[in-house]
Structure formats: C-alpha cells, structure tokens
Amino acid sequence: MRTGSYGVSVTPPAEVPAEVGGELREGARDRVHAGGSRAPVITSSARRDALLLWFGSRVGILVSTLLGTALGQYVDKWRKWDVVLFATIAEHGYDGDPGQPHDPGLPAFFPGLPLLMRLIHRAVPDWTAAGMLISLAAGAVAMVALARLAEAEGASGWMAVLALLLFPTVVFLTAGYSESIFLAFAIPAWLAARHGRWPQAAMLAAGASCMRITGLFLALALIVEFCVRRESPRRAGWLALPFVPLAVYSAYHYSRSGDWLAWKHAQEAGWGRNFAWPWRAWQTSWREAMGTGDFSVGFRMEIVGAVVAVCVLVWLLVLRRWSEAVYVGTQAAALLTSTYYLSIPRSLLLYFPLWVLIAKVATRKAWVMALYALILGPLMLLHTALFLNGDWAG
Fold this sequence. Notes:
Layout: E1 2-3, E2 9-10, H1 44-66, H2 74-77, H3 82-92, H4 112-120, H5 127-152, H6 157-165, H7 179-194, H8 198-209, H9 214-228, H10 244-257, H11 262-271, H12 278-289, H13 296-318, H14 322-336, H15 344-347, H16 352-364, H17 366-388
Antiparallel strand pairs: 1-2
Helix pairs in contact: 1-5, 1-6, 3-4, 4-5, 5-6, 5-7, 6-16, 7-8, 7-9, 8-9, 9-14, 12-13, 13-14, 16-17
C-alpha cells in the first residue's frame, strides 16, 4: 500500500505492457514517474462512463430545452451573453461588427475559440451552433480526461465527471463559451505532467492558453509541479511554451492599438473591473447582494462562489497539493481582487482538482455523492433555465 496524491491509500498494480500510440490499453498503466510512483490502473470503462454521462446529460438538456420550443428555435435559446461576443469576434474580428457601436471589451476574449468557430463555420452556417458543436466535442474530451485523472488518483472516474456535470453553472459547458475547450486542453495537460510527459503537457497547456487567460495560471501551476517532482532541469525549457500564446496575443494587440495589455484593459473598459483590495471587493459585492436590484441574486451567487473558491484553496493547502493550490489560488486571487465579484461560480468549472477531491471522498462514502446530487442538482436545473431565459446565471 502507498499513500495516493490526495491522501488515500492505493495499491500499485502489477507491471503490464505499456501504451500503444499514446493511448492506454485496457488494464494498462503508465510507466514509472520521475519520483518512482506508479499510476493506478486506468480502465477503458472510465472512458465509457465519462462519455455516457456527458452525452446523456446533453440529451437531457436537449429534450428539456425543446419542451414548448420549435426545433428551429433551439439554437436561438443559446444565443446569450458571451456567446454573442465570441460570434462577433469570429465573424468580424476584434474591431467588432461595423454596423454596431464599438465594444471595447472584445479584446478580453482570447482568440482560440473564435478561430475554431471560423473553421467550423465553413460547414455550419450558424455561429451559435458552431460554438455549441465545439463545446460538445471538447466537453467529451474533457470528461474522458477528467475520469482518467480521477482514476489515476485512486478515485472513481465517473464520480468526478458527475460532480462536474451536477455543478450549478455547468450550462456554460454546453453553450458556445470557452470553458469546455479550455478543459479539453488543460486536464489532458495536467494528466500528461503527472505522468512525466512534459513536451505533451506543455503543448496541451499552450492550447489552453489560446482559449483563456486561465492558461497563464495553468502554466504557473505546471512550473510548480515540475519543481515538486524534481524533474531534470534539461526539460525545463518546455515550461516556457504555454506562455507563448499570451505573448503572441499581446503583441497582436500592440500592433493594433499600441497596448501590450489590451486584454486586461478591455476588462476595465467593458466591465469596469479594476484592481481592488480583497476586503473592498467583498464589501462592494456584499452591498449589491443585499440590495434589491436586478443583479442582487447574481451577486449572492458570486459570494457563495467566492467562499467555495477559498475553501477549495484551503483544502488543497492542507493536503499540501502545492501545484493545484497555485492553479486554484491564482484564479481566485484574480477574481477576488476585482472591483466586484463577477463570474466566480462559472470559473469554478475550471477547478478540475475540486472534482477529483469530491470523487476521492465519494468513492469511499457513496452517500456523499447522493447528497451532493440532491443539493446541487436542482440548482443546476435552475441556472440552466435562467441562462436559457436570458437572465444572468454566472
């Protein structure tokens, strides 16, 4: 017996043949890590269960959305909020629609998803549908990777996937947002790093950096993971690769506007999000949450999300999960030092260490997952309905 990465005892499996073509054979496991530890058996059932849960939940959303809605109106139900902004960038670029007022917030959105939408648009004429198809395919990749990561940590893969799919803001993994495609790069990158495959990890993390600024936080966490594992310094050069997309994107906007930090200043211009001390951000958000304005309920959600983010960070620190703590903590720090809280519940979707932690606990105590589903399942349905009705949901 040995202690697993999250403090759970795991029995290493016997030696079996290695992988073929980069994919693990059924019943196979990865080679010895840098630290001499071996990953638990990752079975083909993890992939099957993850895909069944993912596509089953998508069918459920499709059926519930079509109730009382004509098939032709289905895509229109998803044309909300940032979906429109991603479509605008994909169709017109960062100058925006020439027929509409200029939107100074567009540079806040990284180019990875709009570029993919332009590619898919060649076959799918509707921009919203193109974004949803990307999220559908990317979500399948992310769920399989999450299940494999959970099993590599000695937890139930399907429980990790279910924990994510029951989270209240999971609707953003269906809509044409960048969360699904980010996770499709980020979780495999983390899994590759755990198995000592640093070139693969760096390339996947670079893909994640094309999608969201969160890729910067992933890159920093990979550096910490590299150091914790005491990898050979000769392999350290790969760790610079995830920073390249951010540098290229900054250079692109500098060539357009002379602003190296256009993506950051777009947040300030588009949403009024400037740096604020954490207690100031809390006070502002609390005041709005306790008010009676249109967004008071949304701010209450934000405060709950902030508390969850801090709890997850503390949990990881207690377990001495330093690299995951950097990944979660840097995201939390960025959102908790803004003028006011915005999109914190949605950002929790990207906390893949959280879903593994929940699966760790639920694998030993099945009632935890049942209780989790009973509490968060109805909230997930509520948030999905809010989004489809055009109300603020994350």
